[in-house]
Amino acid sequence: MIEVRNVIKSFDGKTILHDISADFYAGKTNLIIGQSGSGKTVLMKSIVGLIVPTSGQILYDGKDLLTLSHNETRLLRSEIGMLFQGSALFDSLTVLENVMFPLKMFTHKTLKERTKRAEFCLERVNLKGADKLFPSEISGGMQKRVAIARAIALNPKYLFCDEPNSGLDPKTSLLIDELVSDITKEYNMTTIINTHDMNSVMGIGENIIFLNKGHKEWVGTKDDIFTSDNEALNNFVFASNLFKEVKEYVLTQKQGHL
Amino acid sequence: MFLIKPLAQFGRYLMLMRSVFSIPDRWSEFFRRYITEIYKLGIDSIAIVATISIFIGAVITIQMVLNIMSPMIPAYAVGLATRDVLLLEFSSSIMCLILAGKVGSNIASEIGTMRVTEQIDALDIMGVNSANYLILPKIAALVSIIPILVIFSMFTGLFGGFLVSVFTQMITVTKYIYGIQAMFNEYYIWYSIIKSLVFAFVISSVASYYGYNVKGGALEVGKASTDSVVISSVMILMLDVLLTKLLMQ
To answer: Is residue A139 within 8 angstroms of chain B, CB to CB?
Structure first.
């Protein structure tokens, strides 16, 4: 479990995150949603430790990331997997070498063991036969799957996904969502997904934190969204006619049940 | 006030170097990358070093014949002057200025692209010391390969002069060969190598600094690449003056 406590982040006197507190649970897909510029990425980078918050606490199973020693931070990082918006695969390495990279850097496994583990991870993300290809030779969806395979190679306790569906077609987006959700349950990981894809919100949002202009505006599940009267949330989630119709349909169904 | 920005930048450069010069996470990985960088930064530069050195060696010889030949000066002085120009300045300083353009822009754009595509963030998240992992093999590789490039440049430059003597009859081959051996001072070679080691460090570390600190996208990567070449060239010229004063006086 990851707890964020009273996190404030300012850049050059401008406050981006205003006193954010939130809980992210193990075995659940935790979503951070919000408009562009709402502070989602800054919050995620603060949780991961790429940005140091101006004040506040980031607790990983009770341990404050900001007060850990260098070695403790290094140890914690080996328990973190991250899927970047642009996949961030190493251009000079093949698909298999990319997945083997964290194993090579942080374990004492033999080459055979590393290869076996990397092949298992690639198989888990349904990516067979691409081992020897370079990232530039595979599609965006495949790159995302390789990045997921790399992220889970060390069996992490925490998985972070920064806009995992950006640039992908709806079908591939759905596959990636399902994959992340399945892996989260399978390994009981604390997964945090940063997204503004409403399909992801409706599909896998088990614990949703809505940010608005750097403030935590709302917390709930995908089902709670339909009954929420939070104006900013409704304006964001139901901005398109399609989702307005979905909302009306869901509410009608609920009333029918009552 | 105008000094604050450069000083802040120099401070950031020193902090980056502190991260770079730490024990590698995995020595085997360091050596693998070191060998790759030797090939990429050194072996790949041999062709350009040879081409430029041969032509400049030939031009220096022609200029010497045209400008210093007189009944008062022995003909072998052409070979001697060509050799000293190549050994003292061209093969170290000018060659490093050229390499600052080729190698420096390569390093800055490679690391800069890794920064904007979040590959460096990915390394940091994994707990890898990204500065050490990416930059140390490049600095070590360029510093260790540069003496070989410098000596290679000296030989090919002298060979360029030799070609002039063979094909133009501006100076006889015998006099040219005698000239390049006359009054030879071995220290000139050491002086050239010492300078080139310093320049190699400047080229690789400055380019790495600019690449590592890129913020933005493709446009900024290009700008970082250009800035790194400009700054390393200026630093090479300034250090050339300083080192010449220190080493030759």
So the answer is: no
In this prediction, residue B1 carries a pLDDT of 67
Residue B20 located in a structural domain: no
- Cβ-in-10-Å burial (0-12, 13-18, 19+) of A132 comes to exposed
A88 touches B at CB < 8 Å: yes
Q: How far is B14 from chain A (nearest CA, A)?
A: 20
> Given B25, B117, B127, which is nearest A88 (Cβ)?
B117
Task: State whether residue B126 sits within 8 Å of chain A by CB.
Answer: yes
Q: How confident is the model at residue B60 (pLDDT cuts 50, 70, 90)?
A: very high
pLDDT, position B49: 94
Q: Is the ipTM of this complex over 0.90?
A: no
- Tracing tokens 């002085």 back to the chain, one arrives at B77
For the CA atoms of chain B, what is the radius of gyration? Answer: 21
- pLDDT tens-place string over residues B113-160: 999 999 999 998 888 899 999 999 999 999 999 999 999 999 999 999
Helix (H, G, I), strand (E, B) or coil at A63: strand
- Give every CB contact of residue B200 below 8 A, 6+ residues apart in sequence: B96, B99, B142, B143, B145, B146
Identify whether the C-beta of residue B128 lies closer than 8 Å to the C-beta of residue A94: no
Local confidence band at A258 (pLDDT 50, 70, 90 cut-offs): low
The Cα–Cα gap between B217 and B222 comes to 9
Q: Provide the domain count of chain B.
A: 1
The range of the structural domain enclosing residue B183 comes to 26-248
Nearest CA in chain B to A44: B125
- Mutation pick from A52, A60, A92, A98 vs chain B, by most beta carbons of B within 10 Å, is A92
Contact A74 B127 (CB under 8 A): yes
Residue B9 lies in a domain: no
Structural domains in chain A, sorted by start? 2-79+156-257 (3.40.50.300)
Q: Residue B103 has which token pair?
A: 């190698």
Establish if B119 belongs to a structural domain.
Answer: yes
What's the mean per-residue pLDDT of chain B? 93
Indicate whether A205 pLDDT > 90: no
% of residues, chain B, pLDDT over 90: 85
Q: What is the mean pLDDT of residues A55-73?
A: 90
